[in-house]
Write a structure and sequence with these properties.
By secondary structure, this protein is an alpha+beta fold. The protein folds into 3 domains: 165 residues, Galactose-binding domain-like (Jelly Rolls, Sandwich); 331 residues, Glycosyltransferase (Alpha/alpha barrel); 76 residues, Maltose phosphorylase, domain 3, CATH 2.60.420.10. The protein is built from 13 helices and 28 strands. The chain is globular and about 85 Å long. The two termini are 45 Å apart.
Length: 585
């Protein structure tokens, strides 16, 4: 049960012109005109927050009063202190026919709760019977703020309580992370909270706007769920949902059991399959859905051009909420295709399908052979976003540099390229979604300190602005996706933005498994921190780890499941300066 945690309520009156009528309650509430309290009164408002004593009482002119020509309604805004998924409830006592209108939102606009954002209508109406009653809504919502407006009161209305019943998929935090920097620890925890708010009967993009299972979003969520919760059933369900949704043309829908398609999302399903099977140790799932992988990659042949790059494919090319060049032959799309082919080949080898593995590696090899010549721009010393009509575009992004390195398609040294990627302000920057892949490229190439600095700057800014869950984009009220600023409300809780939670466990605590049947890799990266500790769920069981830096020496202590193969590695820059104690040895 969630009760109000902060005295951040406010009181005002809502003036509704007589004769105003509209079918949608949310539209109706949107047209309420706020006024300073006039002929209305809410006494003992503080009683509604946790620790408050007594009851709140609402008094306003009776609608039966013929001398009050304008109907003013008492209105209050209540702050739950953080984003929640919940069934709202109210415990009230009043006259029969009294009305309580409720609006919900993640943020305030102009000091009010906006009942409509991005065509999402968030409002309920409760009509009282005589006496005391407790009403809980039938559908949960994602929100932080509640606005209550009281109508048709023929006598004072008593509010005994307002609250919410929290709901989420039943998980527990089997993962944990703490370190010497409180901000970094808060980022890990806020990411875990964000992910939990995006899980009900399925993985969701966000709890406010769509509440749908998106494929590209889900591939990022898989690693977050694994590291924060170790929940195997939810991640397996994700893979199966899209296998069951596959189109006749071999592609997958962008949202499970829907009709639209995002091409790069479909490709990410193959890496997602590998991620789930590696974490779960689940060869059965790989065999079960392998025919789906075959259908997808067989279909992709028809969209390969003479050079082996995918071009003129069906479906939308998303990449990220950012202005990335996509016309003609798109570098990020083909790097993702290369990753997908190799992930599928790894799965094929694991379940004894060497013929398919060889075929897919050969197709990936065609991309690798020509990629550098196709996309490298010598003048800029960077990979270009896209090539249209055999002419390189003038568009360069963090996305292209990061995914090129992550796919292993670069023919220049990775370290300086990635350092420039995170420091060159002329590049189109990644939004939270694709920052997952930028962070992975940094982590896998010995640049964890740069990754942690990126997290502090980007996600730390959200924390400093009061975020209790991570936003869909770096801004909450607009986007740069078209190359210019466009006002547009964004989700305040989006699971793909919880990427640091997985990354901090994998590359700062330093515990991960990379391949089918592979060892538990223990490779902590201090990144300027003096100590860190936590738990990382793995296919073999939980790994408890802590490390400290003293006098330029790194001391690592870990407890791993008995019988699990373990590979302890000195982090970059710490060769010969690290001591590992594993299971007291």
């Amino acid at each position: 049960m969630v009760r109000l945690g902060e005295v951040r309520s406010q009181e005002f009156s809502a003036f509704v012109p007589r004769g105003f009528s509209v079918e949608s309650l949310a539209v109706f509430l949107l047209h309420d005109v706020p006024e300073a309290p006039r002929l209305t009164r809410i006494e003992n408002l503080e009683a509604l927050v946790e620790g408050g004593a007594g009851m709140a009482v609402v008094t306003q002119p009776s609608p039966l009063d013929i001398h009050e020509t304008d109907q003013f309604c008492a209105t209050m805004i209540l702050d739950f202190g953080r984003e929640i998924d919940a069934y709202g409830w109210i415990d009230v006592e009043g006259n029969e026919g009294a009305v309580v209108d409720v609006a919900y939102a993640e943020q305030l606009t102009g000091g009010r709760v906006p009942p409509i954002r991005q065509n999402t209508h968030y409002a309920d109406r409760y009509v009282l019977r005589e006496g005391r009653q407790r009403h809980e809504v039938y559908d949960w919502k994602g929100y932080r703020y509640v606005q209550l407006t009281f109508r048709e009161l023929t006598r004072p209305l008593v509010i005994h309580g307002v609250g919410a019943t929290f709901t989420s998929y039943p998980v527990e935090r089997r993962g944990a992370f703490e370190c010497s920097d409180d901000l970094v620890g808060r980022i890990w925890s806020t990411g875990a909270t964000t992910q939990q708010l995006c899980m009900q009967g399925h993985m969701m993009d966000c709890p406010w706007r769509e509440q749908q299972e998106w494929l590209g979003d889900g591939r990022v969520q898989l690693l977050i769920i694994q590291n924060a919760f170790g929940a195997r059933d939810m991640t397996r369900k994700f893979i199966e949902d899209f296998a069951d949704s596959q189109f006749d043309n071999g592609l997958f829908p962008s949202v499970a059991f829907s009709t639209g398609c995002i091409f790069d999302y479909a490709l990410w399903w193959l890496q997602g399959l590998k991620d789930v099977c590696v974490f779960n140790g689940d060869q059965e799932l790989a065999r079960q859905v392998f025919p789906n992988a075959v259908r997808l990659l067989d279909a992709c042949r028809q969209w390969e051009n003479a050079e082996g790059f995918v071009e003129k494919h069906p479906g939308h090319a998303f990449v990220d909420w950012a202005h990335v060049g996509k016309a003609g032959v798109c570098a990020p799309i083909n790097a993702i295709y290369h990753i997908a082919l190799n992930a599928a080949a790894d799965t094929a080898e694991r379940i004894g399908k060497p013929g398919r593995a060889s075929e897919w590696r050969a197709r990936a090899g065609r991309i690798a052979a020509l990629y550098h010549a196709k996309f490298w721009n010598e003048g800029r010393g960077l990979y270009v976003d896209n090539v249209a009509d055999n002419v390189q575009s003038a568009m360069f992004s963090q996305h292209t540099q990061a995914i090129t390195v992550l796919a292993g398609l670069h023919r220049v040294e990775a370290t300086p390229l990635l350092r420039r990627t995170v420091s060159d302000d002329s590049l189109t920057r990644t939004e939270p979604y694709f920052s997952f892949y930028l962070l992975e490229a940094l982590g896998r190439n010995g640049l964890a300190p740069e990754g942690l600095d990126f997290i502090r700057r980007r996600w730390g800014a959200m924390i400093e602005q009061g975020a209790t869950s991570f936003w869909e984009e770096w801004q909450t009220n607009g986007t740069f996706r078209a190359g210019r600023w466009t006002p547009r409300p964004r989700s305040h809780c989006h699971a793909w933005s919880a990427a640091p939670t997985a990354w901090l466990s994998r590359y700062v605590l330093g515990v991960r498994i990379e391949e089918y049947g592979g060892p538990i890799i223990i490779e902590p990266n201090p990144c300027g921190l003096t100590e860190a500790s936590g738990v990382v769920p793995t296919a073999y069981g939980p790994v408890a780890i802590e490390w400290r830096v003293r006098d330029c020496r790194l001391s690592v202590t870990a407890k791993v499941p008995q019988g699990a193969q373990t590979l302890a590695q000195d982090p970059t820059g710490w060769a010969g300066q690290a001591t590992f104690t594993i299971n007291e040895r």
